[in-house]
Amino acid sequence: MKNILLLLSVSLLAVSTTFAQKQFTRSAKTRFFSDTELEKIEATNHQVTSIVDLAKNEMVFSVLMKSFEFEKALMQEHFNEKYVESDKFPKAQFKGKYTSEKPIDLKQNGNYPVSVKGTMSMHGVNKEVVASGTFSVTGGKMSGKAVFKLKLSDFDIEIPGVVSDKIAEELTIYVDASYEPYAK
Amino acid sequence: MLSRFLLLFSFLIVTDQAAAQDDLLDLLEEVEPKKEETIDYTIATFKTTRLVIAQSAETNAQGVLNVLIGHRFGRMNGGPKEFFGLDNSTIRLGLEYGITDNLDIGFGRSSFEKTYDGFLKYRVLRQSTGKRKMPLTLTLFSSIAIKSQAFSDENRENYFTSRLYYAFQMMIARKFSERLSFQLMPTMIHRNLVETKADKNDVFSIGAGGRVKVSKSVAITGEYHFVIPGQIVSTIGGQKVRDSFSLGVDIETGGHVFQVHVTNSRGILEKNFISETNGDITKGDLHIGFNISRVFTVYDKNKFRRKREAKRAAKAATASL
After folding, report:
1. What pLDDT, on a 0 to 100 scale, did the predictor assign at position B16?
2. What backbone torsions phi and psi does residue B154 show, to the nearest 5 degrees?
3. Can you list the alpha helix ranges (DSSP code H) found in chain B?
């Protein structure tokens, strides 16, 4: 009896670390949008990295702040220098779990709506974030889309009074990722 | 015995789950481009393309038009009669444009001596860390100024070339920290026409200046240009030519940079403040001035670059078919 249980524990440990159905990307898109009457600000990052573990329903994202592209160069400079202070905090990261009604099957085309819950780390602050998204499978390839909102004040990002009418308190974040299998 | 194993069992499951997401993050780090694989260029060494009164090492971004309105008033020690210099206001209206991220072209007209100026500014080296480590930003500046004021004596033979002044300057800058940036400005002014034979046509100077940020939007700036002695003998308005010294404050809002300064130089252009400064600080020969800089995006260089990359990718895709 003792030996069976020992064997079981060891094999469980072994199985959970080597069994991997992981998907990754280095070119996921993340766009944020600030909407006020005076100004609409948006920027897109085309180089977001992400890994999704389909076996464990987990996902991680890593966003290099300096890779956000703005239409106006000065806005990009202010974003990095004054608001997110990308020299001090170069990356924003998200790690979380998702739940879906049916498990994602790469052999079955279709849309899989998911709800995501996890921790967003940005500007030195960790905050819990919930989002709803959809994973889509077509021809064995997986992609994911999500929309959620973030409050700037939650991450200690200060908006100076002089421009407070031009930047929204809450931003809408759009994520669009096309994954490929992660082969170790 | 059984309970102990069940405890071990459940412990293994729980710790395994918690560590897994961090494992994923570690895995992600292996997938991401490393810091040493990309060049991280230093941004915002100075808030705009001017330090106090001289050029800063910054150039405008590609596709950006910078409208620069510079004011310089008369001497403060003119007293209340001259409204502390405000009655004698001169202005420079200027436009500069970023042809690329590193090359600017600009034009301006100053009411002082009715001078037109045109310049090119090229950033040769850019401070960076990561894949390429560059400790300094080096920018070159070259300008022509044309004084269009009437000649003092219309009856003698006056040449158009006498109206021309050339300024060549190197800005060697470093952003030391988020708050502190410093630059050296070796400069040469060439005057086609000088007062006497003893005055040199080529005037060399070395300037030093910097800025200290006091808040996210406000910085204090200072600048000093040391004119190498023995080059300028003649006086201007009975006063000898001196080194230029300026102190200023930068205030930045969304799209504007306001620069207010106090200086002993009357004129705005390089040829004025390097080779024609005659204000004696000890006597209070100081001028207040202010610059307003407003940037406009003529075209979005990121969108332009992506469109071009997409076209190239499409071309490559069809070529390989």
Report:
1. 52
2. -70, -20
3. 2-31, 270-275, 301-320
Phi, psi of B163 (to 5 degrees): -85, -10
CA torsion sign for B214, B93, B224, B204 is positive
3-state class of A53 per DSSP? strand
DSSP string, B147-175: E-SPPS-TTS---GGGGEEEEEEEEEEEE
The alpha carbon of residue A47 is apart from the nearest alpha carbon of chain B, in Å, by 9
Residue A94 and residue A127 in contact, taking contact as beta carbons nearer than 8 Å: no
pLDDT tens string A100-152? 988 888 888 999 999 999 999 999 999 999 999 999 999 989 999 999 999 99
Name residue A131's amino acid.
Answer: A
Cβ B9 vs Cβ A8: under 8 Å:
yes
ipTM for the whole predicted complex goes beyond 0.90: no
Q: The whole model's pTM is what?
A: 0.86
B301 vs A contacts (CB less than 8 Å): 73
d(Cα A30, Cα A48) in Å, to the nearest integer? 7
Q: Determine how many CB atoms are found less than 10 A away from the CB of residue B61.
A: 21
Strand bridging mode B256-263 / A91-100: unpaired
Using a CB-CB cut-off of 8 Å, the residues of chain A touching B216 are 82, 158, 160
- Interacting residues of B68 by C-beta distance below 8 A, sequence separation 6+: B49, B50, B92, B93, B94, B95, B96, B106, B108, B291, B292, B293
Work out the end-to-end distance of chain A between its first and last CA atoms, rounded to an integer number of angstroms: 36
Q: Say if the Cβ atoms of B16 and A93 lie within 8 Å.
A: no
Do the Cβ atoms of B56 and B171 come closer than 8 Å?
Answer: yes
Among A149, A151, A144, A137, which Cα is nearest to A175's? A144
The answer to whether the CB of B265 falls within 8 A of the CB of B244 is yes
List the beta strands (DSSP E) in chain A. Answer: 22-35, 40-53, 58-64, 68-70, 91-100, 110-122, 125-138, 141-151, 170-178, 180-181
Chain B, residues 155-194, CB within 8 A of chain A, namely 178
List helix spans (H) across chain A: 2-18, 73-78
Q: Is residue B213 a contact partner of residue B219, using CB atoms and an 8 Å limit?
A: yes
Q: What is the rounded distance in angstroms from the CA atom of residue B30 to the CA atom of residue B37?
A: 13
Average pLDDT per consecutive 10 residues, chain B (321 residues; last block may be shorter): 69 56 81 83 95 97 96 94 93 97 97 97 96 96 96 91 97 96 98 94 97 94 97 93 97 91 96 95 95 94 88 86 69
| CB-based contact B25 A93, cutoff 8 Å | yes
Pair B52, B223: CB distance under 8 Å: yes
